[in-house]
Amino acid sequence: MSADLLAIARSGTRAARAALDVTAQNIANASTEGYVRRSVDVAEVSASGTIGGVGTTTLAGVRVSGITRNADALRQAEVRRTGSDAARATSEVEGLKSIESAVEQSKVYEASVAFEGSLKQLTSDPTDGSLRASVVESGRTLASTLNVTAKSLDAVGEGLRFDAQDGVSQVNLLTSELAKVNNRLVRAANSSSDQSSLLDQRDTLLQKLSAQVDITTTFAADRSVEVRIGGVSGPKLVSGNTSATMAMTTATDGTLGFALDGAAVTPAGGALAGKGQALTQLADTRAKLDTIAAGVIAAVNGAQASGVDSAGQPGQPLFSGTGAADIAMVATSGAQLATAPAGAAAGSRDTANLTALRSALTSANPSGQLDAVLFDVSSAVAGRTVTRDALVSIADSASNALQAQAGVDFDSEAVNLVRFQQAFSASGRVMQVANDLFDTILGIR
Amino acid sequence: MTTLPTSFSTGTAGFYGRARSDMASLREQAETLQTQIGSQSRLTRSSDDPVAASRLRTLSRADSLAKIDTANATRATTDLNLADSALSGITDTITQAQVLATQAATGTLSADQRASIGKQLASIHDNLVSLANTRDSNGNALFGGTGASSAYTLDASGRAVYTGTGSSESLPLSEGESVTRSITGPEFLSFKAGGQQTDIMATIKSLADALQGGVADPAAAARGTLEALGTGLDAVSTAQTVVGTRLAWIDVSTTRATQMTEARASEQSDVGGIDLASSLARLQELSVVLQASQASFTKLSSLSLFDQLR
Question: pTM for this structure?
C-alpha cells in the first residue's frame, strides 16, 4: 500500500514538474511573436477491478494527458481578416500620401499662378524687356516644376511597384513555407510539443500572409491548412504540401495585375491590394497632369502662332513637348513673345495678341485644374485616412482579443509557478508520509 | 477592447504594446499642435482639410494677381497724371497762341510786328509738338497710342504728322475692370473747323506762316484762326476732364481692391489660421495627459507579482 502511495506521489511530482516546465516555457516566450500560451492537461490514473461483481478502485496517481495550445481559431481568423483590411487601407493611404506630397511639394500650382501673373504684368508694358524676360522665366519654372512633379510621381510609382514586387515574393515565400509546415503537421503526433510549435508557425505564417493578400483558410482534421485568395471559392494558394506561385505584371500606365499560376487574380485585401489601388490613383493623377501640360502647350503655342514678336516676326512656339514629363521652354529671350497681333510693326505696344494668349490660357485654366488635381488627391487621402483609422482600430481590438486569450500574462504565470511549486512540495510530503508509514510497520516489535 | 469583462485579461506583451501605441498617439497629437503653432497655419498638408486647402489656394492666387493689379493701377495713375500735366501745358500754350493771334488780328500792326508775332507762333508750334511727344513712365510716347515711335513727327514742310496708332492700350485693374492709360494725340489735338478736319498744330503753323508773309492779308488770316483756336482749346479741356475722370475711376477701383484684399486676408486666417489661445491650451492639456500616462505606465509596469513572491 505504501508502495502505491510512493508511486502516486511520484506521478504527482512528475505532473507538477511538467506544469512548472510549461510555465517556465510560457514566461520565456512572453514576447515571442506568434507564441500561444500553453497549459498542461492532467488526468487521473485509475483502474477499477471487477472481481465477483464487487467494484474496487485502484488508485494509480496522475498523468499528463497533453499540452493545450490556447488558440481560438475564430479569433485568429478575425485577426487575419481585419488585419488584411487594415493592411490594405494602410498601404493605400501611404501611397496616396506620397502622391499628394509629390504634387503639393513641387509647388506646381504656385508656378502656374506665377506664370499667369507674369503675363498679366506684361500687359502694363509689353515692350519692357525685364517683364518679357520674367514671362519666359516663369514659363520655364512652370515647365520644370511640371517635370519635377511628373518625375516625383514616377518615383512614387516605382517605389510602390518595388514594394508590391517584394510583397509578391513574400507571398510566394510564405506559401511555400506553409506547404512545408502542412507536410510536417501531417506527420506530427497529436498534442506533441513538435505539433504545438508547428501550429504556432502555421498561424504566424497565415497572419503574415494575410497582411499581403486577403485569404480564406480551411483546416483539415490533421491540422493542415488550405488557403485560398478571396472567399471560399477563390483560387487555391496553398493546398496540402503544394503552393501556387504568384506573379505580378505592370501595365503601360504603371497599374498592377496579379496572377496565380498564370490565372489572373484580384486580391481585395492586404497590402498588395492597397498598393494596386494607390497605383490606379497615381496613373489617374499622372494622366491629368499630362492633360494640363498639353493644355498649356497648346494654348500658349497656338496664341504665339497668331501674333508677332517684338521684331515684327511671326511668333514661334514657347513650349516644346507633349506632356508633363517633357514640357520645356524653348524661347531663349523675352523678345520672342508674340504680344502684338499679326501685321503689327516691330516694337509695337499693341497687346491684342497678349490678351488673346491670356484668354487662351484662362480657358485652358491650368491653375484651376491643378487645384482640382490637388483637391482630388488630398480629399482621397483625407477620406481613406478615416477609413484606415477605423479599420486599424478594428484590427487592433481583434488582435487584443486574441492576445488576451492566447498571450502570456506574467501575473497568472507567477500564480501558476507558486501553485505548481506547492503541488510539487505536497507530493514530496506524500513521499515522506509513505516513508514514515513503512518505517512504522518495520518498527513493530 | 470588445471582449466581455468576464473574459478580460491582458497579456503582458499586449499591455506593453497598448501603452506604447497610446503614448505614441498622444505625442503625435502634441507634435501636430506644435507644428500648427509654429507655422501659424492649421494645415500642414492639403489632406488635413481638402476643402479649406483648395479655398486657400484660390485665395492666394487671387492675392498674387491682385498685387499685379495694384502695380498696374499705380502705373496707370502715373501715366494719367503725366498726361494731365502735359495737357495743362498744352492749354497754356494754346492760350498764349490765342493772345498772339488776337494781337495780330488788329489792323494797326506793321508787317514787321506781325512777322515777329509769326516767329513767336512758330516757336509755340514747336513747343506744342514737343508737348504732344511727351514720354510716359516707361519712356514710350504718351499720346502715341500703342506705336513704337514718337507720336508726332515733322514732315518735309515742317508740319506735324501723327505717326502713332488709333487707340491707347487699356490696363486691366481687377477682374473685369480696366482703364485706358492715356489718350492719343488726335483725340485732343484734332478738331473740325469750318467743316474741315484739322489739328491745333497745323492751325498755329499756318497762322505763323501767314503772319511771316505767307498771305496777302495776315490780319484777316489771324481773325479767321481765332475761332479755330477756341475750338482747339475746348477739345484739350474736354480731354483733361476725361483724364480726371479716369484718375477718379482708378481711385474707386483701388479702394475696392484694397477692401477685397482685406476680406481675403480675413478669410485666409479664418480658413487656415489657428486660434493661438485654444491651441496652446490644448497643447498644455495634451502634455498633462501624456505626463500622466507616462507616470501611470511606469507605475503599472513596475507592478510585478514576481517581486512580491519570496
Answer: 0.82
